Amino acid sequence: MKFEGDIFEVIVELDGRKECRRIRSLLEKQVMLGDAATTSTSKKRYYSRYFSDEVSAKDYRLLLKLIAPPKIKISIKGLGVDKWRDKWKKEFRPFKLNDKFIVVPKWKRDKIVKKHGIAIFIDTCLAFGTGLHETTKFVAEMITSLEGKFESFLDIGTGTGILTIIADKCGANDLTAVDLTDDVLKVTRGNLDDNCVRKAKLIKGDMARISFRKEYDLVAANLTTEDLIGLKSRIISVVRKGGMLAVSGISLKKSRYFIERFRDPRLNKVKSLKGKEWAAFLFKRLA
Ligand SMILES: C[S@@+](CC[C@H](N)C(=O)[O-])C[C@H]1O[C@@H](n2cnc3c(N)ncnc32)[C@H](O)[C@@H]1O
Fold first, then answer.
1. Ligand 1 pocket, 178 CB below 6 A?
2. Considering only CA atoms, which residue is closest to atom 14 of ligand 1?
3. Which residues are registered as beta bridge partners of 286?
4. Which of 69, 155, 183, 260 suits 207 as a labelling partner, its CA being 20 to 30 A distant?
């Protein structure tokens, strides 16, 4: 079946709050969720994730069908860009990211109250990174805690650019952000402009193939557990000696496995952050 639209919404229909939490946690163990949305009517709750191409949406539905109990209804709906934006706008509200920052949807920038913190304006479109997801929050916290202690910053898998914006506000003056596609980097650039971050360099490509000519004071990588392990040598090679590395996106259940596989004589673990589902680690590069 072919779906009409510019954006493809994969919808999981759930019967109750409890079931919603259970399915969501099941899915999070299998795949790295984007900032997925949950909506509800009086009887049903709907969990949605959005894709810019139909093939990826169909692949995702297939994956969900393999892991979700058979009674769960999973469907795809095509949306026009405007309709999709309206949906996101309803669900994304200003929130406190940590003691220093609040995240404000770009379209609500006139309504912010300054005393709550420094505002970061975000338009997500199809990129990951509103700051609502625990994995992003953890790295944001680590970057904030290093304020004033780093000048150069590399954001591996930048998504919306939220971590690069935070690094800028925490004093970095040499910023580089990497992601896989032009679509994502268009969103990143828009957000950097909206937050007056003009000096960042954006690189399109796979971290596995990009060659860097320099090393950075602080490197952040919010990827999946497997990607982090697979890219370990490349990631460590771009952290300067004495510099810091923040990694996130590690599912809690895999955190011990991750630490074993990511072990390296050049790294010293200095901080662990653990939530309900995710873990993040801060390392110092020794040599
Ligand atoms: C979980 S999101 C993180 C977004 C944002 N940094 C945050 O913390 O919210 C991961 C991002 O990494 C990108 N990505 C995944 N694998 C990558 C790779 N091998 N090289 C570069 N970017 C990658 C994805 O496209 C996605 O935008």
1. yes
2. 157
3. none
4. 260
Q: How far is the CA of 124 from the centre of ligand 1 (A)?
A: 13
**Which atom of ligand 1 is nearest the CA belonging to 158?**
6
pLDDT for residue 111 is more than 80: no
The per-residue pLDDT for range 172-207, each reduced to its tens digit, is 999 999 999 898 899 999 999 999 998 899 999 999
Q: Is 206 left (phi over 0), alpha (psi -120 to 50) or beta?
A: beta
Q: In angstroms, how far is CA 273 from the centroid of its own chain? A: 16
The radius of gyration of the chain's CA atoms, rounded to the nearest angstrom, is 19
Q: Is 207 in the pocket of ligand 1 (CB under 6 A)?
A: yes
* pTM (predicted TM-score): 0.80
Domains of the chain: 7-88 (3.30.70.260), 129-285 (3.40.50.150)
> What would the pLDDT profile of 241-285 be if each residue is shown by its tens digit?
999 999 999 988 889 999 999 999 999 999 999 997 789 999 999
Q: Which tokens belong to 59?
A: 């692949």
Which helix (H) or strand (E) is 35 found in, with range? none
